[in-house]
Design brief:
β5 and β6 form a beta hairpin. The protein is built from 7 helices and 17 strands. The protein starts with a helix and ends with a helix. α2 packs across α3.
């Protein structure tokens, strides 16, 4: 039997011009595998325990795993040491007996332009500073303190109630530096009075430093103060017969306007947050 005869009755390969073609699983031709068990959508009302602890500001997620394994964290009164454990936002989570808040703490620094109000409620419909940082967070961030509508400079926003309370009335004061423009030139005698301390509302107001701005009229001064009393800078100069026409806060608790144009905002760095938390 010839070679040709032996091939009769068999389908020739595609390469030989026959009708038979082998299945090719080259790139792009592999069969599509159906996902038999599609992943379930995550529950928006639940969160991993380590993330819950980290969001509360106690520590990082990595350190949270260590504390969880050590039994420092309880959920609804029971110690949880299981890695990857999920809790509901309605659960009561405590770290060393202290109740935690799972909302991530956020800190935003704004270089406020003029003609924006900082009060929480404004019945006159004026532009509010919150609109300038609306894209910074989904959480409601509030200004730590106030700046008058016509004033400019640094304004800190956060949802960290504990920090806000501390910065509003720190025991040792909070360092702030202002660039002021007065309605008239500051007399040397009054400059000396401010350096020595001026009585405002029966209390002495002491400044850390005050000086004229270089190469500027003598109605422009820079003043460094630690007092947290309301509108204390304006009231200080009013006591001596001056009116503050412009005020620009250039330093706030160690934070500066460097690389932050007017009307822009930025997040605080981790180190800046640590520094502010050290203020008592």
């Amino acid at each position: 039997m010839s070679r040709d005869d032996s091939s009769k009755g068999k389908n020739a390969s595609g390469r030989q011009g026959g009708n038979f073609k082998k299945k090719s699983y080259a790139r792009g031709n592999a069969p599509i595998k159906k996902n038999v068990n599609p992943s379930k959508p995550s529950d928006p009302n639940s969160i991993r325990l380590n993330k819950y602890v980290a969001n509360s500001g106690v520590c990082s997620r990595r350190d949270a795993d260590i504390y969880i394994a050590a039994g420092n964290v309880t959920v609804n009164g029971k110690p949880i040491i299981e890695m990857g454990y999920k809790v509901k936002l309605t659960d009561e989570v405590k770290f060393d007996g202290q109740l935690l808040n799972p909302v991530k703490k956020e800190y935003v620094l704004l270089n406020k332009p003029k003609d924006f109000v900082t009060t929480i409620r404004d019945e006159k419909g004026r532009r509010h500073v919150s609109g300038l940082i609306s894209s910074a967070s989904k959480s409601k961030l509030l200004p730590v303190d106030k700046l008058e509508k016509e004033y400019t400079g640094l304004l800190l926003f956060t949802n960290d109630g504990s920090m806000t309370k501390t910065l509003k009335s720190p025991i040792n004061g909070l360092r702030k530096i202002y660039h002021l423009v007065l309605d008239m030139e500051l007399r040397s005698a009054d400059l000396k009075k401010i350096q020595e301390g001026v009585i405002v509302d029966e209390k002495v107001v002491r400044v850390q430093d005050i000086s004229f701005i270089a190469d500027s009229p003598k109605r422009e001064v820079g003043i460094e103060i630690f007092s947290s009393r309301s509108k204390i800078v304006e009231r200080l100069f009013e006591t001596l017969g001056y009116k503050v026409q412009k005020s620009d806060r250039v330093v706030y608790g160690g934070l500066t306007k460097k690389d932050l144009p007017r009307g822009h905002w930025r997040y605080l760095t981790a180190q800046e947050v640590i520094n502010l938390k050290m203020i008592k």
